[in-house]
Design a protein that fits this description.
The complex is a heterodimer of chains A (about 180) and B (about 525). By secondary structure, chain A is mostly helical. Chain A has two domains: about 90 residues, Orthogonal Bundle (Rna Polymerase Sigma Factor, Chain: A); about 70 residues, Arc Repressor Mutant, subunit A, CATH 1.10.10. Chain A is about 70% helix and about 0% strand. In chain A, helix 7 crosses helix 8. The two termini of chain A are about 35 Å apart. With about 525 residues, chain B is an alpha+beta fold. Chain B has a domain of about 350 residues: Porin. In chain B, strands 3-5-6-8-9-11-12-14 form an eight-stranded antiparallel β-barrel, surrounded by four helices. Chain B is elongated, with a radius of gyration of 41 Å. Classes of the chains: A mainly alpha (about 180), B alpha+beta (about 525).
């Protein structure tokens, strides 16, 4: 089993076996990242493919100032955003009205990530991106606004709408559980 | 909402996706590999363009050096002529003075200046510079030779430098074998997807397997399952995470599909290995033969001439002719065949046989007269100045002074070169560095005076020739080549040849190691 440094060195030299080993190590986690930013698995796999090609070509510039996983995740997110920007060009992100939120926040603890993923994928494009960037990647609205070329207010309103939609979906889920008494997955 | 205060809701999402994993389909890596191959191919194309540019620059450089060298040789020839013409004019004037018995009509200083002006006033047109000298000293001409014999102003001192042509074409360098492998992989992957899709479902560790069939089922943003969730009517997990039963019905066969797959894989591998082997055999280049020719310039390279024996009657001007002959520069042509073999991954050994001709043009001012037969003088050769007794011990050989006349000295050798080469670039385009030694066997030299009055002299190898019968030269050069198909390669070979010792025998009193620069064009046939 090669160490991470050996893998990086091998990839820098263009060694195909090292590249495959690196891919095998990170592809599963990165696919989830890509799935969060896409509507279908095929779309996510396209992003994953494009992202890994970028990783291998940019690995020579990786200075190991951060964890390799963080660096690869950033590349995947940027690749996904590039893909989504093309759609956002056609459907610009605008301020949206917030929905009426339930009084109490619905918890997501105990819900399998695959269900959450399913819910995220059903969000509108703009909401999906902002929700991912804010709630999961941890960017501020200012940073999101700069990355997407939108106003901070738009980012906030998109997130608020995304959150409302997510809570509505989660509420339905919890109602279902309460009604039929099934254990959460 | 404050960005800095992340509430429980967002944090719980981060936590939920922290260790989430999903299996991508096999096609993803195949496509990545394909993209990487394409990128490598582009890189190779850029490299090829670079090497093409390098080759072009090298050829231009080689041509420039050859051109400048030739120009310098020409200049030095003209300079030699000017140097030697000055004392001739002086001597002629002295003779004029003696025969006319009058010093007042011809001032020696004025005549010298006039002769100098005639000689050096037109450096680039040797013919014209010689004519006035001949005209201005008719009396001397009558004394020695018939007036028009050997003095016609038709000097030719032009050499040629052959230029090779380098043709190259743009060809991609994508490895066919790799493409085939990928294609085979894709076929295999699709088979795997069809037969084993949905094998991995939603498990307790939270691993998701989006397979090919699942992918196609989810092309729309809302799958039936997710639509059901959204509608809140029925609770059914999406197909992505609860894969349906395999849609592909295996053929009614008792054979294990896994074994069938392995058999197919083994078959594909065998086919690919055979193809690879065939391609490798076609691309190998281990033994070859080539035929080619080369042209270039030869520079006398500062020869030294010993003093002429002082007791000889001919000592007055013979040193000048000897010096001129040995200092002459000229042109070199060669044709030959060679064989080569690869002795390691990067090293090659090449040998062969060449026929080499070198043409030197110079101006002489003396002739050889045998047994006082002034009716049939001949152009002198170097060895006749210094050791005439070697030619014919019984004959009385005299070197007589005459007016400048043009001489062409054609020297022929057979070379047996043996060179080691290092392959710097060994692809469709090749770049090779060569070094080695050549055994030079002297055949003959022919001294052809320009004009009808003097006899042409041919000296074969042996005692009659001033040239060593056997000599050794060092070779150094480069080779730019381009492979044409599986069997042929065309190459351009700029190179230097430098004799380890003087080409003249030691008893001639002349020590000269002429440097040859030529550019060869070779056509190579590759056996295997």
């Amino acid at each position: 089993m090669l160490s991470e440094n050996e893998l990086i060195e091998g990839c820098r030299k263009g060694n195909r076996a090292s590249q495959k080993a690196l891919y095998e190590h990170y592809c599963r986690k990165m696919l989830v990242v890509c799935l969060r930013y896409s509507k279908t698995t095929a779309e996510a796999e396209d992003i994953l493919q494009e992202g890994f090609v970028k990783v291998f070509s940019a690995l020579k510039d990786f200075r190991q100032e951060s964890k390799l996983e963080t660096w690869i995740t950033r590349i995947m997110v940027n690749t996904a955003l590039n893909v989504q920007r093309r759609k956002l060009y056609l459907y610009p992100m605008v301020d949206v009205e917030e929905l009426n939120l339930p009084d109490t926040e619905v918890s997501v603890s105990g819900i399998h990530f695959s269900q959450l993923l399913e819910m995220i994928q059903t969000l509108p494009h703009g909401c999906q991106i902002v929700f991912n960037l804010f709630a999961i990647e941890g960017f501020s609205h200012k940073e999101i606004a700069e990355q997407l070329g939108i106003s901070e207010g738009t980012s906030k309103s998109q997130f608020a709408r995304a959150k409302s939609l997510m809570q509505a979906k989660l509420l339905k889920e919890s109602t279902y559980y309460e009604r039929y008494g099934e254990a959460k997955i | 909402m404050n960005d800095m205060e992340r509430r429980k809701f967002e944090d719980s999402f981060q936590e939920a996706f922290k260790d989430a994993e999903a299996n991508p389909s096999e096609n993803v890596w195949t496509n990545i590999e394909l993209d990487l191959e394409k990128a490598d191919g582009d890189k190779m194309k850029r490299r090829l363009v670079f090497f093409k540019m390098l080759a072009a620059a090298s050829i231009v450089f080689a041509m420039s050096v050859a051109g400048i060298g030739y120009y310098v040789f020409q200049r030095s020839d003209t300079g030699n002529l000017a140097q030697q013409s000055t004392p001739i004019a002086d001597q002629n004037k002295l003779k004029d003075e003696a025969s006319a018995s009058s010093l007042k009509n011809n001032s020696p200083g004025a005549s010298l200046e006039e002769a100098d002006a005639n000689v050096s006033g037109n450096e680039t047109q040797t013919n014209k510079s010689l004519a006035p000298i001949a005209d201005g000293s008719k009396q001397g001409k009558d004394e020695l030779l018939r007036p028009d014999a050997g003095l016609s102003p038709s000097t030719k001192a032009n050499g040629e430098t052959q230029n090779g042509n380098n043709k190259s074409s743009n060809n991609g360098t994508i490895a066919k074998g790799a493409t085939t492998l990928i294609a085979a992989d894709q076929n295999l992957n699709s088979t795997v997807s069809e037969t084993t899709s949905n094998a991995n479902g939603n498990d307790k560790t939270g691993t998701v397997t989006p397979t090919t069939s699942a992918t196609s089922a989810q092309d729309d943003s809302m799958t039936p399952a997710s639509a059901a969730v959204a509608a809140g009517t029925t609770r059914k997990l999406p197909e992505l995470y609860h894969p349906a039963d395999p849609k592909l019905q295996l053929p009614a066969s008792n054979a294990d599909p896994g074994m069938l797959l392995l058999a197919k894989l083994a078959d594909e591998e065998k086919k690919f290995a055979l193809k690879e082997k065939d391609q490798a055999k076609k691309k190998s280049e281990n033994l070859w033969t080539s035929v080619g020719f080369a042209a270039g310039g030869v520079n006398a390279n500062n020869p030294s001439v010993a003093a002429v024996p002082s007791n000889a009657l001919y000592s007055m001007n013979s040193a000048n002719t000897a010096s001129t002959q040995s200092k002459a520069s000229g042109v070199s042509y060669s044709v030959g065949v060679s064989v080569g073999t690869k002795i390691s991954n990067r090293w090659v050994l090449q040998g062969g046989i060449n026929y080499l001709t070198q043409d030197y043009d110079y101006t002489a001012n003396s002739v050889v007269v045998v047994n006082n037969n002034f009716e049939a003088p001949k152009a002198a050769s170097i060895n006749e100045f210094f050791a005439p007794q070697l030619l014919d011990a019984t004959a009385t050989t005299t070197v007589a002074q005459t007016f400048p006349y043009n001489v062409n000295n054609n020297v022929r050798f057979v070379n047996v070169p043996l060179q080691a080469g290092y392959l710097v670039v060994n692809r469709k385009f090749g770049f090779q560095l060569n070094a080695g030694v050549s055994t030079d066997v002297f055949l003959q030299n022919t001294i052809t005076p320009d004009g009808g009055g003097l006899t042409k002299t041919t000296q074969g190898s042996g005692d009659e020739s001033p040239y060593r019968s056997l000599n050794f030269s060092g070779l150094m050069g480069t080779e730019f080549s381009y492979r044409l198909g599986d069997r042929y390669r065309l190459s351009l070979n700029p190179g230097l040849r430098y004799p380890f010792s003087s080409v003249y025998k030691s008893n001639t009193g002349v020590d000269s190691t002429p440097l040859t620069f030529d550019v060869g064009l070779r056509f190579r046939y590759i056996f295997h």
